[in-house]
Design goal:
The complex is a heterodimer. Chain A has helices spanning about 5-10, 20-25, 110-120, 120-145, and strands at about 30-35, 40, 50-55, 55-65, 70-75, 80, 95-100, 100-110. By secondary structure, chain A is of the alpha+beta class. The termini of chain A are far apart. A seven-stranded mixed beta sheet of chain B has the order 11-9-8-7-12-13-16, with helices on both faces. Chain B has a six-stranded antiparallel beta sheet with strand order 4-3-6-1-2-5. Chain B has a two-stranded antiparallel ribbon with strand order 14-15. Chain B has helices at about 90-95, 135-145, 170-175, 200-205, 225-235, 270, 275-285; strands at about 20-35, 35-45, 55-60, 65-70, 80-85, 105-110, 125-130, 155-160, 180-185, 190, 195-200, 215-220, 245, 260-265, 265, 275. Chain B has seven helices and 16 strands. The radius of gyration of chain B is 18 Å and the shape is globular. Classes of the chains: A alpha+beta, B alpha/beta. Chains A and B meet through strand 4, strand 5 and helix 4 of A and strand 10, strand 11 and helix 5 of B.
């Protein structure tokens, strides 16, 4: 039976992670699929999971009564989605909707937190990888906020 | 790779005095987006022989209003009609947006340095544009695709504010349908009926692997965007001499005499607008210039 280790090892998020550590993580992972238009998570809902995207595209949306659903970012193959599982109160900030058929590896955050608490080296390694992503997204968001393409006439 | 600084190498224009505009007629006017339009211009006199290199610009003169420096956005191998895509942002470009087919306009140029299209032969090519920055890079795309076999992988990364701000939609779709250029488009914001990428243009770069020894990047867009993109490319180990940017300042004479576009020790109009990044990286960090 094919295990998830080689899939994780091939994903950019886990690049360079030792096999022993991947084996620990795989115990909290499962394959999932989302159809076009399916919501993966809803804003404000309790969450204890994150996803690494293998295929497809996911839109992170905010809904405004006056503007409707606004896409603030899209994520696709190679990206990681969700860091709310790391910190209390474990609630999602955006709606996440599959805009294409999307295949992911889902990690059970509760299971993972338990393992990372037991193995602080692994916990630190995972945290470093998440912080890198958070910094990249923060940097991109700042650039997005600058609205660099000028003012409307 | 040698940086392209040689404005003297620019092909000779039909306009013999750089300070005297030649009269061109507006042959076509096309609205691209809510604030951007394209003019196709033909000379009213002379031989009609007009040559330019990708990345160069002209000074366009709206009679009675003034001049503006506008990059040439057509195909260098088909210089007649002369094509300019212009964003209506100042008095001159707003006045030009009201031109009609048959109206006259003054043209001086071409001026400035060019993109390293020939120097990039044998390399992978990253063309990275933000907003109106696609216009000065379109000649590069035409040239590279015309001699596609001479290059490695070719990528076009293009970011705009919204889907409605995308320039050259029909051409983007045509290029994307080809198998020999990868076109990645993103917008800063969109409603849920947009099924493409949302995020700044830098987010596209992570989608491709770059071979730093055999890649040349050409970037055009707002200065902040170019800095962020260059920073990401440097993180991917691309050498500063392999990254090219097109700078913009208030250009007046076009020949390095008046000093309006002085940028540290250089003049954007004469030494630029296209610079290798190692020549401007220090200057970009200086607020006072």
């Amino acid at each position: 039976m094919e295990t998830l280790e080689p899939i994780l090892a091939a994903h950019p998020f886990f690049k360079g992670m030792p096999l022993e550590e991947l084996k620990l993580l795989v115990g909290c992972a499962s394959n999932v699929k989302f159809d076009v238009g399916q919501f993966i998570s809803r804003e404000g809902s309790e969450t204890s999971e994150f996803f690494i995207i293998r295929q497809g595209k996911v839109a992170l949306e905010l809904f405004s009564p006056t503007h409707g659903a606004i896409t603030v970012e899209t994520l696709d193959a190679g990206d990681v989605m969700g860091w709310e599982w790391l910190l209390s109160p474990y609630r999602t900030i955006f709606d996440a909707k599959a805009v294409e058929l999307t295949r992911c590896i889902r990690f059970d955050g509760k299971c993972l937190r338990g393992k990372l608490e037991e193995d602080h080296d692994l916990g630190y390694e995972m945290l470093k990888r998440f912080v890198k992503i958070i910094v990249e997204r923060l940097s991109a968001t700042r650039l997005q906020l600058l609205d660099i393409y000028g003012t409307r006439v | 790779m040698e940086p392209v600084f040689d404005s003297k190498a620019a092909p000779k224009a039909a306009v013999f005095s750089p300070m005297v505009p030649e009269i061109f007629r507006v042959e076509k006017y096309r609205k691209e987006t809510h604030d951007t339009y394209t003019l196709e211009l033909r000379p009213t006199s002379g031989t009609g022989e007009y040559r330019f290199k990708a990345g160069q610009f002209n000074m366009l003169y709206k009679f009675g209003v003034g001049e503006a420096a506008i990059s040439i956005s057509g195909d260098p191998s088909l210089p007649n009609p002369l094509i300019h895509t212009i964003r209506a942002v100042g008095a001159v470009t707003k006045a030009m947006s009201k031109l009609k087919v048959g109206d006259m306009i003054g043209v001086r140029g071409p001026f400035g340095s060019c993109w390293p299209v020939q120097e990039a032969v044998g390399n992978d090519v990253l063309i990275i544009a933000g907003g109106i920055g696609l216009a000065p890079l379109r000649p590069v795309i035409y040239q590279v695709l015309a001699e596609r076999r001479k290059y490695g992988k070719v990528f076009l990364f293009y970011g705009t504010r919204t889907p409605e701000d995308l320039l050259y939609r029909a051409e983007l779709e045509k290029w994307r349908a080809r198998f020999d250029i990868e076109v990645l488009v993103t917008v800063d914001r969109a409603s849920s009926d947009w099924h493409g990428n949302v995020g700044v243009v830098t987010t596209l770069l992570k989608k491709v692997a770059i071979d730093p020894d055999d890649t040349v990047a050409m970037i055009c867009g707002p200065e902040i965007m170019m800095r962020f993109v260059a920073m990401d490319l440097i993180r991917k180990d691309l050498g500063l001499d392999r990254i090219y940017v097109s700078m913009e300042r208030n250009m007046k004479c076009g020949i390095g005499l008046c000093g309006h576009c002085q940028y540290g020790p250089t003049f954007i109009c004469k030494d630029g607008p296209v610079f290798a990044y190692d020549h401007v990286i220090e200057l970009l960090a200086r607020r006072e210039i």
